Amino acid sequence: MAESYKPMDAFDSMTESTFIIKPKTNTNTNTNSKSDLAADGGYLTLLQGQEPVESMQLRKRLFAQLWQPLEEELFTIEKQVNNIGITEVCDFVDSSYGEIERREQGQVARPFAEVSAAVTFAGINTGDHGKLFQSLQDQLLERGHHVALLESQYCNTLPNLQRSLLEQMFNSIYADTDAGPSAFGGTKTVTYDLGLLQLWWANAACSGKKAVVVLQDFEGFAPTVVDDFIRIVGGYCDAVPIVLVLGLATSYECVHQSLTKASISMLNVERFNLQRSKQCIDTAIHRLFVQGRAPLCFGAEAYKSLLDQFLLYSFSIAGFVKKLKYAAMDFFYAQPLSVLASMLAPNAAVSACPVRLNSDQVELIRMQRSVQRFLERRATENGGNAYVRQALSDDDFFQDTVLLQMARALVMYRRSYCLGIDAIVEIQSMAPEAIQKPVRTLHYYGVGQQFDDCTHWKTLLAVVRRMKTSEMTLLLQKLRRLVDGAADVDWDLVADGTHIHELIQGAAELLANPDGSAIPDVLDNSEPKKRTRTRTEMEHRPFLLFDKGASDAQLNALEKCCEAVEAMLRACLISYHDVALNEVFYYRHSFLLDTAFSAQPRAAVQMALGKSHYYVSCDCCAVTDAEDHGSDDEAQRITPTMHDTSIAYRLHQECGRLINLYDWHASFSSVVERESQRTAPSQGEIQARFMRAVEEMRFLGFIKSTQRKTDHVVRLTWGM
Is the pTM of this model over 0.70? Predict the structure, then answer.
């Protein structure tokens, strides 16, 4: 690959060039297929080309119809949640500079003036800050204030900052007064100074309004620029009510670290928290996944990947939406059974699929494990053998009858699951704060674990068993309201026929009158036991410790209510794996999401240096097929035709934590000198190539210098 040392060779440095190895062109390429692919928006006929064109076009329409409402729903949720913090900042701006208003009214103001400043913590999701502060600017403009939104990249010096500020302020004043520059003398502004703002502010008659200056990314501004700007603003705040809004992404301590004490003493600071990403995600997950407004739900692994990207990396709502859209695109682009999403349209009853499925699609549905279990359960019922036989042999019967029944059962399961999560939220509201979990975590427990395997469900059931009669009565009232709101759930299709409404209603009636009323049939009608209150009895029935004065009938009613609540949760929080068609509507491609959104540059660089012939596509560096067959000697063999950085990387893998540069250079020279050429490289050329390879590895983060031994470097990476 490299027969001699060429300093300007394009392939000589992997840190200075990006290589694009174009594939071999095929002269028989069909241009019509490319045009058809572009016309269909990238959609292809699946099932090895056996999918009908109508199904492919339906998948395309479904993605456009279903994603647009979801995106609008997410935007509405984000706007509603962010408006809480934005309204607080706007109220602070409205109430600022009461001294000016008192002076205008003839009252005595304070002898000194402070610059009102709102320090807002917007969170580490810097990608969402633009939309957040734009919403803040829009609301301030709606209240009649004049706003200048400044970014650090355009305000690197104090003159640039004042210029951007005055230009935005003047444009705001022109928009309100319908006046142009000619109305103020007809000359263009050459020297940008806040004295001009004072003059223009007086001429514009902006009584009651504020001049709001928003520093969107405070950490990006030079501390000296902000410090000087605050001193200048302090001299004009008597005439112009200037309010500063400092947007922070790290912490409030950044203000004290960046500004001097003299500048901070001039500020009337109030702190606000605009980071409400978690509340936004909780609301979005509850509406889209728990309530089932999105036809596509996430399995346990894919949902964990979706949450980890948000919680462990950026707290970015935009990143969450992108990942959700990517999953929806993969579902409608690559899943041939995504046409069934038309049967589960939101806010509509279950209907038949708009297009007729062919035999390959029907057979693919029959091959799903959940469908097979559904048919096996039907076979155990009376007349089930004939039903199953017809479902397996008659495609029309399967589409018109069986598929509709499975889709309806899936819809009923989602509604009952929503009821179960809401019941858990109500139970948590009466539990200690230490064991309360957000909705996103509750949903992860619901999709990721069976009911008996989830420790959090057991903890909440223990809380229910410790409730007094008054607390149990309040809980049952809340559960009855939830059950009444889910009156459209057909309990014969879910929860093995357990009627939750009758169960909760019977428990409430029994608790209200434990002595005079008979035990309902839905509850265990065993006779009340004599409560001896032994240690074993109290371990199994902790409510005996709290209702010591209660009668045995009341304690028995409490126990029956606990059993009813547990039966309700068991019936509603069953695993989605037990529901038919879960393989279709529960997205599980977590590896695809991690590959697309959780980049691993270190692994990519190590793979490129360790197996450079795959990237450069050269035959001289390829190591035979022994590497693929597991021969370590051939796989680790270093050839002189490899790239210099690749040679140095492979040699450094044989060293320990400290690498002797002399020994490393000697090993590098022994490899390079074996190049098949007429004239061997000189020692100076070898040394230059080695120094360049070492510096590239230092730049890539594989090694670093050490003060302990000047002729050694420290190895930083291990593995691969």
Answer: yes
